[in-house]
Amino acid sequence: MKCPYCSNLDTRVIDSRLTDSNDSVRRRRLCEKCGKRFTTYEKFENQPIAVIKKDNTRQPFDRNKILSGLIRACIKRDISTAVLDEIVDDIETEIKNMPSNEISSKEIGNLALKRLKDLDKVAYIRFASVYKQFDDIKQFTNELSKLKKSD
User: Fold this and answer.
1) Edge to edge, what strands does the sheet with 37-43 contain?
2) 81-96 vs 105-119: helix axis angle to the nearest 10?
3) What's the rounded Cα separation, in Å, for the pair 38 and 52?
4) How confident is the model at residue 151, as a pLDDT?
5) 71 and 100, same structural domain?
6) Does 128 lie in the same domain as 58?
7) Rounded to an integer, what distance in angstroms lies between the CA atom of residue 71 and that of residue 80?
8) Given the DSSP bridges, would you call strands 37-43 and 58-60 parallel, antiparallel or unpaired?
9) pLDDT (tens digit, 9 = 90+) per residue, 36-80?
10) CA-based nearest residue to 121, from 83, 147, 93, 89
């Protein structure tokens, strides 16, 4: 590793540990030439995830889109953004562990619905009404009856 201060290539690791999120390694290094210390991070590089939209176009995965949808579904509900962020982390981890680096927006919506169903029924219905694009009251009541049966 090249020293950021003197550009010397002779550096050594003096401490290594996992980051709080356990997704990278933090290394403290010491330059053998100038004696200065610096930190580097080693992170697993994974393939970018492509989201296949309803019109078959592909977009890069954006966790903020999921989060904003969850936040809208949970307006005026007693659910913190920290909890919603954990849900998005969980969804993102599940997607990254899938064998393919492509996923449909429908599958992402189902992953979100699965978690909202256990968290808050009102938020679940709000999210479902937008995600499933209810056209009439019959679709809405069908979803409500399914939700009621699962209790």
Assistant:
1) 11-18, 24-31, 37-43
2) 140
3) 41
4) 65
5) yes
6) yes
7) 9
8) unpaired
9) 999 999 887 667 899 999 999 999 999 999 999 999 999 999 999
10) 147
Structure tokens at 3: 């020293």
pLDDT confidence of residue 50: 94
Q: 145 lies in which domain range?
A: 50-149
Residues 79 and 99 in one domain: yes
C-beta of residue 147 within 8 angstroms of C-beta of residue 129: no
Q: What is the DSSP letter of 151?
A: -
Amino acid 39 reads T
pLDDT tens digits, 16-39: 998 887 778 999 999 999 999 999
CA 63 to chain CA centroid, Å, is: 5
**d(Cα 48, Cα 53) in Å, to the nearest integer?**
16
CA distance 116 to 7: 51
